[in-house]
Structure prediction request, 330 residues.
Amino acid sequence: MKKRILTGITTTGIPHIGNYIGAIRPAIEMTKNSDESFFFLADYHSIIKNQDPDSIKDSVKNIALAWLSSGLDPKKSYFYKQSDVPEIIELCWILNCVTAKGLMNRAHAYKAATSNNENDPDKGITMGLFSYPVLMAADILMFDSTHVPVGSDQVQHLEMTRDIAARFNHLYKPLLTLPEPIIQDKENVVPGLDGRKMSKSYGNVIPLLESESILKKSIMKIVTNSLEPGDPKDSKDCTIFNLYKNFAEETEIKSLQKAYDDGIAWGEAKQLLFNVINTELEPVRSKLEELKEDNDFINDLLSDGAKKARIIAKDKISQIKEVIGITQIS
Ligand code: ADP
Ligand code: TRP
Prediction:
């Protein structure tokens, strides 16, 4: 069987280097060892939590730019917007009809959203939020994906996808492929400026697609302790060191460790960190400069990607509709 990898990024917020290290860079790397790869912008997922149209539009563009500038080759993969493949939404409804409500009740994201509700457990819960995992299952099952690279927070959604697919296959015909998750290294959570997980929800990010001077300014804002130059420093749980490890070669990491033992000044450590990140991001930035004003080019590329993806999706949805009895009168 062909190895087909597929992953999506929800289009809320502006991409940061946590997304780059945790999702974009490894997914692009994985395309080298797979037969086919599918990368998409999960724009219908984004409207679950964000009802500001301008910020969604901005995010779609920036996340597309992040993938393309980071080296995704749209000729060698399927690159599209979820909303441009309407068969996914058709499949989503069909899957809703075989998904047990009880399964959705157990979703971590839904449970987290209700956990602060005191009197009315349904306060602020939309059907979109509740059935989020079904849309994700449709994204994955539409293309018979075999491997889905995701962060550890998404593992439950993959288990649900497998459950939903197995239920469909049992009720009708074994048409759906059960995917395997590829879980990104759990240890490798990229820390943000304040040492917590880098996340747009914490406002502690180093942006991916900004100028050199903004990159430098962000890095200079990393919170450190008050140890003076000359004091030996601990690299464990150190934000600067942990970020450095994601960008540097083995020998550079060893030499920074030595510098920590020898009492490097925080300012100097930040400069070294800036240098390694900047070196890696230079080609990303120059590709970005080429692309960022060319909306037509990006739109055409996404629309070609959707056309290619729809060839597969149309064939699959017609097989699915056939087995469930939504077909021509005969
Ligand atoms: P955010 O936490 O900023 O909302 P998302 O949840 O939209 O980010 O994540 C999009 C992708 O980027 C996911 O695959 C996620 O695992 C990855 N990712 C996000 N933040 C980090 C981080 N700090 N370290 C590693 N990977 C991350
Ligand atoms: N839920 C994923 C996230 O928040 C994004 C996503 C949507 C996705 N559909 C997907 C990831 C399908 C992998 C496969 O990160």
Notes: The chain has two domains: 4-189+295-324, 210-289. The chain has a mean pLDDT of 95. The two ends are 34 Å apart (CA to CA).
